[in-house]
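Thread: quick sanity check before group meeting

JM: Hey all, I'm pulling together slides for Thursday and realized we never actually wrote out the predicted structure for the chain we discussed last week. Dropping the sequence here so it's in one place. If anyone has concerns about the input, flag it before I start.
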Amino acid sequence: MQNPTMPRPFHVAFPVQDLSATRVFYEAVLGCAVGRTDSRWIDFNLFGHQVTAHLVDDAPGVMGTNATNLVDSKAVPTQHWGVILEMDEWEALAERLRSHGVAFIIEPYTRFKGEVGEQATMFFLDPSSNALEFKAFADDAAIFATS
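JM (edit): ok, ran it. Output follows.
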């Protein structure tokens, strides 16, 4: 098991329909540095993690799933990914997204207030309708807490 104080970067790959729009969104809106690129994929540095956008030609049902689960009375997309940030990073990202006119699926807010696992969270879509969640915990020790 990885030392929880020194986590390694994760890698995630995801499908996109337009590499150019994806690059603009991840680079200009989210502030990601661009790594290696190809005609069919782009690596991005997302808060120190490697995320790779792969161009798909026709993948019905892959992007933009409508499946949700209720969490804190909000319809959370069941397929989503993102990064747990420090609270100041989360607040800066929320403001950056607002300044770029990003439409939120779930507006930035704090859920589970006063409970174990209290966290700031927000959900939005990239240009290919991939759902992203970014969150920050009031207390990082509660990230994996069960009660």
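AS: nice. The mean pLDDT is 90. Residues 68 and 75 are 5 Å apart (CA to CA).
JM: adding both to the slides.
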